[in-house]
Amino acid sequence: MSEGILVLAARRDLRRRLFDVFDQAGCRHIHSARDAQHAAILLEGRQPLELMVAVLGDDAAQARHCCEQLHGLAAGAGVPLLAILDEDAALQAEQLPDDIAGWLHATRIEAELLTRWRQLPPAAAAPAPPAPGHSAAERALALLARIFATSGGGATARLLFDELALDYFAVWPVRNEGNEFLAPLLQLWNGAEPAWPPVEAQQLLQRVLGGEPVLYRSEAALRAPADPLLPLLELSGFVGLPLLDERRVVLGAMLAGTRRGFGDMAVVEPLLRCAAARFAQGLELGLTREQGRAEGLLDALTGLPNRLLFGDRLESILREAVRNGECFAVLFVDLDHFKAINDTHGHAAGDRVLQEITRRLRGSVRASDTVARYAGDEFTVVLRHIVKNDDVQRVAEKILQVVGEPLALENGTRLQVGVSIGVSFFPDDAADAETLLKHADEAMYAAKRQGRNTFRIYEVSPEYARQHGLALRSRLRHALGNGELRLVYQPQVGTDSEDIVGMEALLRWEHPELGPISPAVFVPLAEETGLIVPIGEWVLRTACRQAHEWEQRFGLRLRLGVNLSALQLMEPRLPATVFRALQESGLDPALLELEITESISIKAAPNLVENLQALHRLGCRIAIDDFGTGAASLDYLRKLPADRIKVDQSFVRNIGVDPDDEAIVRATIEMAHRLGRSVVAEGVETEQHLAFLRANHCDELQGYLFCRPLPVVSFERLLAERQQLLGQPAAVPA
Fold first, then answer.
1. What angle do CA 80, 81, 84 make, to 5 degrees?
2. Contact 358, 373 (CB under 8 A)
3. Alpha-carbon dihedral sign for residues 184, 188, 193, 198
4. What angle (nearest 5°) sits at the alpha carbon of residue 651, between those of residues 492 and 317?
5. How many angstroms separate the CA atoms of 519 and 325, rounded?
6. Phi, psi of 16 (to 5 degrees)
7. Do residues 667 and 644 touch, judged by C-beta distance below 8 A?
8. Labelling 49: which of 90, 264, 307, 605 has CA 20 to 30 A away?
9. DSSP-derived secondary structure for 471-487
10. How confident is the model at residue 77 (pLDDT cuts 50, 70, 90)?
11. Which of 499, 516, 424 is nearest to 707 (CA)?
12. Is 241's pLDDT higher than 80?
């Protein structure tokens, strides 16, 4: 039986990202849990673990406790534990518990997680303790070997604390700027949690941080009566050693104390100095990495990713989009007349403008999007998980509006700043990062030629567009017969329970030569050529058959959402087609929800109302998709037999950003409920979205906060994990 992987994170979005990386790598047994108790339920009676990945909080004691619990869940000792440090976590790598085999920042999950896993060394057995009767020197040598064999600072600290029978051990860092005291990186003691004295009152700590070693074999309290830590912990022996880098600069302090006094200092002192050297190396390495990261990857003025880091993130986003068959947009944002601001008001004012533009850009996009300072007065933005190009246009308009608001300098001068924006789309405009940026840059200069303070979307030459369109039309005619079309399924969850209640079937095209082709590209082509009718019928039959199979296997009656195009809705044979798909698959009509987009005109689509009424009589449900984006919202609710409405993601994504869109979402939910319709919110991506929608009584949710669209195999794993968590037996097919 293959071994499993346990992913543990309190935050739902991090759990999803970790699950996605392992799932896309082909790992079959992935358990994702929010805490150790949740993990214990999932793992009870299941296969042993191959790897544990845990997102650790900013409390070292809690992190250690979490690791102890996780190792208690493993089938045997030695399972490697990989730590994920969130961007905002106060926990440093040097503070990680003994059980950690490796770590990485949350920003590098997609780029490095699998590589770090494969690079983990096999778990090594702990060295055997020295046999009784060995001399003190021999025991000291054995302990020195074990200190150098430990994987990190936490392991060294625990080893010293236990082997030397210490009653107190701590490692303190110090900042070079202003010598500010921080919280201890490590602090171990014997006894109940004391009321720790203020840092400023600990005289011995201050002396050590000043570069002075302190060594008291015994009677330390008598020799340093001014330090309140000694009587508080009843310490008799005390050693304090400064942690020095190669230039002899103090990086911190290591403190060790014992109530009974130290024995042979000729043995103890070299051990402690050896440990201090290890802690100093760890601190120096951490500072070097952090400084290199800040100086090399983040813009010093704005704090945004610089060109180098942006390029790395864009490549990661592109790889993920290729794997998932998704779209995203690149925006090139250039300030208009910025040189004039510098020349007139000075460079300090120019810096103030750049910092304020940064704040406004960040406030105009979602947390999952990326904003970077590309160069000088140029910014770049990546908008992820794009469903419709219109969504990107709304964001570009929002940026123009927000940036255009007056900006006050320190001297009271008010400036009006404008930006020119160029937009390119993946995969429509290019399949690689460099060309996407080039096209967005070209579109930005087109916006400047148009008069500035506007946006332009990249446009290919008419001849290229014509040839490209003809080639895609030809390929699309053979896509269905060649097995290039596939379905993915995105869960819909209840707002209160967060349990899966439904799913939407989404169409993808995987061309053997061109790779994934965006639905925004091939669906309009299918509608233009009429191919959408046979393709839509295939989608309906395939999705109904799959939904019924899952219902039998898992005993879970999930509602299935299938989109209908305008051409399908005008087909007189549509009710018969749906009836035949239901009969062939055995799916209950009440579980099939047919989604129609609000952009379809009731008057311009013959048979629309009649077909929907016939489908309703079959027992199917009707949902209005993209609600709020068209001009016929109220007309749809009044004339069509709609059971539910789906709030468009363009409004949901601006929750927390645009009060007007929040008001639209709130009013839509209230209106739908008054009319007896339920509401699904699309594009839910952040906890802020969830909190707002829950507070306003939205019925169901769909979006990347819970799950991306999944291929059949991955969706089955998701349902199997749910079944395990609830302790339900597998359903027996009739």
1. 145
2. yes
3. negative
4. 70
5. 9
6. -65, -45
7. no
8. 90
9. HHHHHHHHHTTTT-EEE
10. very low
11. 499
12. yes
Q: Cα(127)–Cα(148) distance, rounded to whole angstroms? A: 12
Peptide bond into 427 cis (omega under 30): yes
Q: Measure the CA–CA gap between 72 and 84, rounded to whole angstroms.
A: 20
Cβ atoms of 304 and 298 within 8 Å: the answer is yes
CA separation for the pair 547, 504 (Å, rounded): 10
CA distance 105 to 359: 24
370-375 and 378-386 beta bridge pairing: antiparallel
Q: Cα 495 vs. chain centroid, distance in angstroms?
A: 20
Nearest to 553 by CA among 734, 720, 731: 731
- Please say if the pLDDT value at position 461 is more than 80: no
Instruction: Provide the residue type at 448 as one letter.
Output: K
Quote the tokens at residue 329.
């947009």
| Assigned token pair, 501 | 């209640």
Cα of first residue to Cα of last residue in the chain, in angstroms, is: 28
In the chain the domains, ranked by start, together with CATH numbers, are 4-119 (3.40.50.2300), 136-297 (3.30.450.40), 307-459 (3.30.70.270), 465-725 (3.20.20.450)
Tell me the C-alpha distance between 268 and 692, whole Å.
Answer: 59
Pairwise CA distance, residues 706 & 249, whole Å? 48
The dihedral through the CA atoms of 569, 559, 26, 733 has a sign that is: negative
> Residues in the chain, how many?
734
**190 CB neighbour count, 10 Å cutoff:** 15
Contact present, 154 and 186 (Cβ < 8 Å): yes
Provide the 10 A C-beta neighbour count for residue 371.
20
Residue 520's H or E segment, with its range, is helix 519-529
Report how far residue 346's alpha carbon sits from residue 198's, in angstroms, rounded to the nearest whole number: 45
**Residues 6 or more apart in contact with residue 206 via CB below 8 angstroms:** 200
The pLDDT value recorded for residue 649 is 83
Two tokens, residue 472: 């895609």
- Per-residue confidence band for 492, with pLDDT thresholds at 50, 70 and 90: very high
Phi-psi region of 650 (alpha: psi -120 to 50; beta: other; left: phi over 0): alpha
238, 220 in Cβ contact below 8 A? Answer: yes
Q: Which of 249, 232, 151, 262 is nearest to 240 (CA)?
A: 262
CA-based nearest residue to 393, from 447, 442, 437: 447
Phi, psi (degrees; rounded to nearest 5) at 4: -105, 170
> Is it the case that residue 208 has pLDDT exceeding 50?
yes
Buried b (16+ CB within 10 A) or exposed e, 281-290: bbbbebbeee
Task: Write down the pLDDT at residue 178.
Answer: 41
CA nearest neighbour of 46 among 16, 8, 2, 15: 2
Ranking 104-108, 173-177, 492-496 by mean pLDDT, the lowest is 173-177
Reported as a pLDDT band with limits 50, 70 and 90, residue 631 is: very low
Give CA–CA dist 555/561, Å, rounded: 18
